[in-house]
Specification:
7-stranded mixed sheet; alpha/beta; UDP N-Acetylglucosamine Acyltransferase, domain 1; Spore Coat Polysaccharide Biosynthesis Protein SpsA, Chain A
């Protein structure tokens, strides 16, 4: 089985984290989100993966060429002139995906949903599409009756379910997509399918963790929660230079090649790679992405 990771987006909700880096390469516990999703797919034997890219695509291309995960074959679909959307990006990858059932997954989620169960549900349904759903109140927009999607709303309401960002798709999906140009898979493919009487199957995931890392707050919480999953409070990257007097409070993630000066206190924060922090600083509830860019900071000299 093959997969596609949707990674072309601008990461607008994550700005300024994504001013100079594509959202798929934003680090979670010092590793790109994209790498974590590649490994997630590989755990289920999905090792032929294509990734689309538009925003900062040169960085994406460089990363994918250099990414060495045993047994995994990575390809890239470049969208240089215009971003093609979820439908158009998928259509462009038709030659790679057209021969068998495949997975489509968003690049900005982190999860341990049992993908094998979703695939089994899809294979048994006879449907072209299976949307993997769960109960997540903040995003509950999908109306379901008897395991079938009846409508995808713009608003949330009780009794609806949230889309996890994972689809299992038959190659017949390409019959419903415009062959070229920009398109949105929900409004220009799934909604017409529902309206014409085609079944969109659902698989309800339970007993899992799931994070949408598409906003600064959700990105920060994903890092914190993944630390807890790994039963850790602190992570320090390679080649760090941290003065012995530095105090780390509650939870802290420190990237590679980071230097932190004397008597500095860091609390509930993420420090990206290649950052230098001076002495006698207090950094709390922050994401430090460079020497001079600190997000959500409570910071100053003591």
């Amino acid at each position: 089985m093959k997969a596609m990771i949707m990674a072309a987006g601008f990461g607008t909700r994550l700005k300024p984290l994504t001013d100079h880096i594509p959202k798929a390469l934003v680090p979670v516990l010092n590793r790109p989100i994209l790498e974590r999703n590649i490994e997630y797919l590989a755990e289920y034997g999905i090792k032929d993966i294509i990734i689309n890219a538009h925003y900062h695509m040169e960085q994406m291309e460089c990363y994918i060429k250099g990414c060495k995960i045993p047994g995994v074959n990575l390809s890239i679909s470049l969208e240089p002139d215009e971003i093609l959307g979820t439908g158009g990006g998928l259509s462009k990858c038709r030659p790679f995906l057209k021969d068998d059932t495949f997975i489509l997954i968003n690049s900005d989620i982190l999860t341990d949903i049992h993908l094998d169960q979703a695939i089994k549900s899809h294979m048994g349904s006879g449907a072209i599409v299976t949307m993997v759903l769960h109960d997540f109140q903040r995003f509950n927009q999908v109306e379901v009756i008897n395991n079938t999607v009846t409508k995808i709303h713009r608003d949330i309401a009780p009794g609806r379910f949230a889309f996890t960002g994972i689809h299992v798709l038959s190659p017949h999906i390409f019959d419903w997509l415009p062959p070229k140009g920009y398109s949105d898979i929900i409004s220009e493919c799934y909604t017409p399918m529902i309206e014409s009487g085609k079944t969109i199957n659902t698989h309800m995931a339970t007993g899992h963790y799931w994070h949408d890392t598409g906003t600064i707050e959700s990105y920060k919480m994903a890092n914190k929660d993944l630390l807890e999953v790994e039963n850790k409070r602190f992570i320090k990257g390679k080649n760090t230079c941290i003065d012995p007097s530095v105090k780390l409070i509650n939870w802290v993630i420190i990237g590679n090649n980071v230097c932190i000066g004397k008597d500095t206190i860091i609390e509930n924060s993420i420090i990206w790679d290649d950052v230098a922090i001076g002495k006698e600083m207090y950094i709390k509830d922050s994401i430090v992405i460079s020497d001079d860019v600190i997000i959500h900071t409570s910071q100053g000299s003591r």
